[in-house]
């Protein structure tokens, strides 16, 4: 494993060592990953290998705006605490446009690239042609395969290759976005991860950039595998993949995340981790809108995606990965009871927190006209930010969400410039950028219009994901 402060060492990366930081700049998330310095955007090739999670990302270490794309790199042993490593792919050293892409661990050495103790790790990048890079040191440094000559060249404008394992077919697949005849993706197949054969094309107006095809067990049943295809926006459809062709009978897509999906929004270009040891489907995405004095952009907190049956068919639900428990430094709980406006206001009057998680469940049976939720960052010059559920419209933070057996569960991850809202065990998942720094308060209020029964409430203070290392 690379040294923890390798991103700082001038002898390792002399072109632009990262600036000193204590990760305390304005809006710098304390449990949302951001680069030590410079710009980041799309998540690239997240994967797990021998006890280490590798997170690559589009990166401009030269400035705070998009440009001169590199592949940044960070590692973690627990999926929540991250250490930034030296840049993995660098213009001038690695050929081609180093745009977004995916990666895999070649545990069977089908590529025949292994030399030494490590399995080959292959990542795929490039525009208007897919370039392969491989690592033989566990994912820290990469060489271009075949001097960077493209392994496939889709028609039209193309980018964002993502490679996946198709276990039933015993083969590998690749999905690449292109605008040939309109938005869509090309599918390719391979036995060795290097030689690819065109298989089919799936076209849809909504399917723009950064495609991801994921095999998911329906309701956790490994014998009931469906395939989920999503775009950079988080829009997705569920269907079947026979090893060559993807089909879906959905007339229109759903959304994984209900936050603003745009280059200046709060959710874009998510990818799922490859080679996970426990077969979980774990995703991270880009949150574009946050910035500080030395950094621009951060990533969402990692979530586990599950395919769950609802009355109108299968849907993707998302919940924070269980490793969030490693960040909890304190916990307070409150008993159940019926609350009105005054009783709710008193409940959290003595609670103060900077970064935290709220997990609450409400019983709305018999309370058809109530509004309730939380006001965050109270006590400062701003009025606080509210997340409320409305029983009349059955919406949480303005997004439709029906009660389940008469209950509504609200889970909030509150960081310094980032807010993630989960409703009913991930049926609703919403990432937002919020300028909490302008509110400056550290209070939390439970707000109720009317009456509602509180079933359970816990507030967990969350510690920082940063280890505190400084550049020498």
From TrEMBL:
| SMART domains to which the protein is assigned, alphabetical | Glyco_32
User: Keyword Disulfide bond: yes or no?
Assistant: no
* Chain intervals for the UniProt region annotation (Disordered): 1-21
Q: Which residue numbers delimit the Glycosyl hydrolase family 32 N-terminal domain?
A: 32-314
Check the record and name the InterPro entries matching this protein.
ConA-like_dom_sf, Glyco_hydro_32, Glyco_hydro_32_C, Glyco_hydro_32_N, Glyco_hydro_beta-prop_sf
Task: Write one Pfam family the protein is assigned to.
Answer: Glyco_hydro_32C
Q: Which SUPFAM superfamilies match?
A: Arabinanase/levansucrase/invertase, Concanavalin A-like lectins/glucanases
List the GO cellular component terms. cytoplasm
The family this protein is said to belong to: Belongs to the glycosyl hydrolase 32 family.
Please report the name of this protein according to its UniProt entry.
Levanase/fructan beta-fructosidase
């Amino acid at each position: 494993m690379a040294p923890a402060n390798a991103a700082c060492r001038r002898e390792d990366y002399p072109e632009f060592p990262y600036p000193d930081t204590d990760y305390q700049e304005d809006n710098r998330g304390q449990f949302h990953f951001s680069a030590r310095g410079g710009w980041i955007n799309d998540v690239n090739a997240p994967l797990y290998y021998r006890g280490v999670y590798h997170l690559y990302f589009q990166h401009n270490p030269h400035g705070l705006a998009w440009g001169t794309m590199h592949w940044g790199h960070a590692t973690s042993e627990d999926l929540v605490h991250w250490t930034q490593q030296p840049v993995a792919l660098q213009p001038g050293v690695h050929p081609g446009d180093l745009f977004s892409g995916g990666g895999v661990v070649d545990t069977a050495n089908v590529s025949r690239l292994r030399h030494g103790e490590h399995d080959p790790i292959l990542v795929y990048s490039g525009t208007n042609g897919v370039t392969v890079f491989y690592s033989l040191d566990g994912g820290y440094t990469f060489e271009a395969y075949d001097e960077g000559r493209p392994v496939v060249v889709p028609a039209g404008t193309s980018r964002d290759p993502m490679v996946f394992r198709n276990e039933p077919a015993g083969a590998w697949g690749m999905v690449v976005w292109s605008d040939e005849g309109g938005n869509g993706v090309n599918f390719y197949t391979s036995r060795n991860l290097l030689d690819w054969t065109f298989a089919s094309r799936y076209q849809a107006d909504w399917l723009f950039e950064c495609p991801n095809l994921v095999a998911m067990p329906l309701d956790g049943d490994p014998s009931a595998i469906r395939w989920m295809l999503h775009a950079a926006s988080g829009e997705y459809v569920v269907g079947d993949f026979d090893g060559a062709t993807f089909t879906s009978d959905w007339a229109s897509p759903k959304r994984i995340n209900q936050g603003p999906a745009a280059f200046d929004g709060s959710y874009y270009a998510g990818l799922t981790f490859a080679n996970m040891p426990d077969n979980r489907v774990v995703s991270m995405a880009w949150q574009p809108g946050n910035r500080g004095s030395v950094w621009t952009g951060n990533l969402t907190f990692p979530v586990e995606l599950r395919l769950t049956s609802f009355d109108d068919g299968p849907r993707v639900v998302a919940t924070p990965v269980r490793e969030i428990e490693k960040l909890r430094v304190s916990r307070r709980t409150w008993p159940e009871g019926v609350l009105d406006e005054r009783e709710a206001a008193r409940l959290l009057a003595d609670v103060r927190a900077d970064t935290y998680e709220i997990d609450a469940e409400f019983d709305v049976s018999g309370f058809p006209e109530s509004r309730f939720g939380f006001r965050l960052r109270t006590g400062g010059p701003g009025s606080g930010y509210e997340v409320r559920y409305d029983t009349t419209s059955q919406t949480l933070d303005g997004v439709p969400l029906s009660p389940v057996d008469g209950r509504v569960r609200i889970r909030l991850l509150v960081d310094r410039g980032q807010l993630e809202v989960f409703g009913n065990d991930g049926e609703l998942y919403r990432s937002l950028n919020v300028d909490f720094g302008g509110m400056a308060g550290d209070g939390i209020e439970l707000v109720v219009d009317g009456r509602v029964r509180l079933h359970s409430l816990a507030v967990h203070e969350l510690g920082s994901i940063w280890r505190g290392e400084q550049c020498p």
